[in-house]
């Protein structure tokens, strides 16, 4: 029986899960494929620690011995980060080996280079596990929904942020306390910066935009804002307006122009994405024929991610011919990205003000001068540090005008500190 032979780079949590699948479900995969899958070698800096998984694979600290082994058909890269992962992946591709990776950061920054190398060498670079863990969103875009022209993709793509915001919503807890709990429970890293500042989500959005709209995107053009300034007070006000706050990845293509942004977003409570709770991820796609499609599941974890990795390995064994991004790399365009200043949205604005007459008139006057109209407003009697919160929801407004207005409002002597804005998204239907 024919055998597909694999080498694994990285024997951490996900790598251990992949080795477990190779060992535990070997017979099942052989039955489904009509051929055997064999993990022949594993490279890691630490090959002595017991991972608690049975494997017959050769253990080595020398990644080159895998990259240059003529018997290995596919290299599974689970090192993470930019280097040496980029160099290893390029070497594998140039050596005529297929590559499977879960490395969203690598693809977000160096995807164009890597996919073109795969094309030039007649091999495939697959990455289902790089976005939303075990949710098969990328294969759905590439294959089952491939006949659709996508107008939008919206995602809750970071379990750490979604867990924090869910706890803040359901238990009225402050951000700092929930983050500490998330770290204690293992839902957040000791250094959670990539998660809570939106960088991890932006990496995943870059991949989704390429697949949905057929364009390479400069990662630095994705507007990225985290959740660190969201307070329990903002979540309470959002609920009063009928919204929930989520860290949302937003990709849109309108008239050949791309919107690419990650930021806290207020979405109506009745929208399906509002029901994505805890560490779960959710992706909502808008196709011209299929309409809205929603995918929800565990976006991380050893088992879910290993499952996605092995799905790609099995796809290689089937010799599937679908282009990795749904478009051949040489046909990928470079559509312009709409500057954040030109984005039009509704906005939630929260000000802390002195409890004196005329405050509301001053704020409303500045907004009016900047061409911003108010849809609704709440003035709370509850004081925060001696100041009164005023919350407004605007009609559609341009980001540039909002920024100009807030700069003027924050300079008013009756306003304390920096005002908060949260963008609102009502186009998910």
From TrEMBL:
- Amino acids binding NADP(+): 9-16
UniProt-annotated binding residues for L-homoserine: 189
The cross-references to SUPFAM superfamilies, in alphabetical order and at most eight, read: ACT-like, Glyceraldehyde-3-phosphate dehydrogenase-like, C-terminal domain, NAD(P)-binding Rossmann-fold domains
What the entry lists under CDD domains is as follows:
ACT_HSDH-Hom
What are this entry's molecular-function GO terms? Answer: homoserine dehydrogenase activity; NADP binding
Gene Ontology terms describing biological process: methionine biosynthetic process; threonine biosynthetic process
Pathway assigned to this chain's UniProt record? Amino-acid biosynthesis; L-threonine biosynthesis; L-threonine from L-aspartate: step 3/5; Amino-acid biosynthesis; L-methionine biosynthesis via de novo pathway; L-homoserine from L-aspartate: step 3/3
Q: What is its EC number?
A: 1.1.1.3
Indicate which residues the UniProt annotation says bind NADPH.
104
Coiled-coil features, chain-numbered ranges: none
Keyword terms of this UniProt record: Amino-acid biosynthesis, Methionine biosynthesis, NADP, Oxidoreductase, Threonine biosynthesis
- Reading the lineage from the top rank, the first entry is Bacteria
Give the reactions, separated by semicolons, that this protein catalyses: L-homoserine + NADP(+) = L-aspartate 4-semialdehyde + NADPH + H(+)
Pinpoint the ACT domain residues: 348-423
Cited PROSITE patterns: ACT, HOMOSER_DHGENASE
The signal sequence is: none
The protein's matches in InterPro entries, at most eight in alphabetical order, are given as:
ACT-like_dom_sf, ACT_dom, Asp/hSer_DH_NAD-bd, HDH, HDH_cat, HDH_CS, NAD(P)-bd_dom_sf
Enzyme active site: 204 (proton donor)
In terms of PANTHER family, this protein maps to: HOMOSERINE DEHYDROGENASE
Family, according to the entry, reads as follows: Belongs to the homoserine dehydrogenase family.
The name this protein goes by in its record:
Homoserine dehydrogenase
The scientific name of the source species is Desulfuromonas thiophila
Taxon lineage? Bacteria, Pseudomonadati, Thermodesulfobacteriota, Desulfuromonadia, Desulfuromonadales
């Amino acid at each position: 029986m024919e055998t597909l032979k694999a080498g694994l780079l990285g024997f951490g949590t996900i790598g251990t899960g992949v080795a477990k699948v190779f060992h535990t479900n070997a017979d099942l995969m052989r039955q489904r494929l009509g051929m055997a899958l064999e993990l022949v070698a594993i490279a890691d800096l630490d090959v002595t620690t017991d991972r608690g998984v049975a494997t017959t694979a050769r253990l080595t600290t020398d990644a080159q011995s895998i990259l240059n082994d003529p018997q290995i058909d596919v290299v599974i890269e689970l090192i993470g980060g930019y280097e040496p992962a980029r160099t290893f992946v390029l070497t594998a591709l140039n050596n005529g080996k297929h590559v499977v990776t879960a490395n969203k950061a690598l693809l977000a920054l160096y995807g164009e280079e890597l996919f073109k190398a795969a094309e030039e060498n007649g091999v495939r670079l697959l990455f289902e596990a790089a976005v939303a863990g075990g949710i098969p969103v990328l294969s759905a875009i590439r294959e089952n929904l491939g006949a659709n022209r996508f107008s939008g993709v919206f995602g809750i793509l970071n379990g750490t942020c979604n867990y924090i915001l869910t706890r803040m919503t359901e238990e009225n807890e402050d951000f700092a306390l929930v983050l500490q709990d998330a770290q204690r429970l293992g839902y957040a890293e000791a250094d959670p910066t990539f998660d809570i500042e939106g960088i991890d989500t932006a990496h995943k959005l870059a991949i989704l935009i390429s697949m949905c709209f057929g364009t390479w995107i400069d990662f630095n053009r994705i507007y990225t804002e985290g959740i660190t300034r969201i307070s329990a007070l903002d979540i309470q006000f959002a609920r009063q307006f009928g919204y929930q706050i989520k860290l949302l990845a937003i990709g849109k293509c309108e008239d050949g122009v791309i919107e690419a942004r990650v930021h806290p977003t207020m979405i109506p409570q009745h929208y399906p994405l509002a029901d994505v709770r805890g560490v779960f991820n959710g992706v909502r796609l808008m196709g011209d024929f299929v309409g809205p499609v929603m995918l929800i599941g565990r976006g991380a974890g050893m088992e879910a991610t290993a499952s996605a990795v092995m799905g790609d390995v099995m796809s290689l064994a089937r010799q599937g011919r679908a282009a990795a991004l749904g478009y051949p790399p040489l046909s990928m365009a470079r559509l312009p990205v709409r500057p954040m200043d030109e984005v039009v949205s509704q906005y939630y604005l929260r000000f802390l003000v002195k409890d004196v007459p005329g405050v509301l008139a001053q704020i409303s006057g500045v907004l009016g001068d900047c061409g911003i109209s108010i849809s609704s407003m709440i003035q709370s009697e509850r004081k925060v540090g001696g100041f009164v919160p005023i919350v407004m929801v605007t009609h559609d407004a341009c980001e540039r005008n909002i920024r100009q207005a807030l700069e003027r409002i924050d300079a008013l002597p009756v306003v304390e500190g920096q005002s908060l804005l949260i963008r609102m998204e009502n186009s998910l239907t």
